[in-house]
Amino acid sequence: MRQNRVRIYLHFVWTTLERRPLLTEDIRRRLYRNIEAQAQRMGCDVLAVGGVADHVHLAVRVPATLDIPKLMQQVKGVSSAFARDVFGPDRFFRWQDGYGVFSFHALQAERVIAYIERQQQRHAENRLWPEWEDPDEEPPSA
């Protein structure tokens, strides 16, 4: 192989502070556009953004040179400032510290995208992948 070929696929999940259900449908649409734009500015190919009232999922293909913590610092920081502007001074908004990040193979991309795009339905039907829903939970030991 003459050139490096790097394909890194990541699925992030993070929550509102104390999992407060602050993200209404109208705010989510605008917030997702903001998150997508920031991830793209950092060189990511955004595959999907979705979530429910208390958390967000983001699937991206990242360049090999991208610092993952820096990506999340930027995405969460910019989107938090955006949300505070949308809510205005009378309403408190903040993301919970930390996040979950999971790698996946390119062949799984379609499944991951579908999972993220169908968050509302999956939560309503309680058809969740627990390891991808609570970034604060420790994975079960093998």
Describe the structure.
- By secondary structure, the chain is α+β, with helices and mostly antiparallel strands.
- The protein has one domain (8-132): 2-Layer Sandwich (Alpha-Beta Plaits), CATH 3.30.70.
- Helices cover 40% and strands 20% of the residues.
- It contains five helices and four strands.
- The chain has helices spanning 25-41, 68-87, 109-117, 119-125, 130-133, and strands spanning 8-15, 45-52, 55-62, 100-104.
- A four-stranded antiparallel sheet has the order 2-3-1-4, sandwiched between helices.
- Strand 2 and strand 3 form a beta hairpin.
- Helix 1 (25-41) runs antiparallel to helix 2 (68-87).
- The longest helix is centred in the middle third of the chain and has 20 residues, at 68-87.
- The termini are far apart.
- Mean pLDDT is 85; it is low at 138-142.
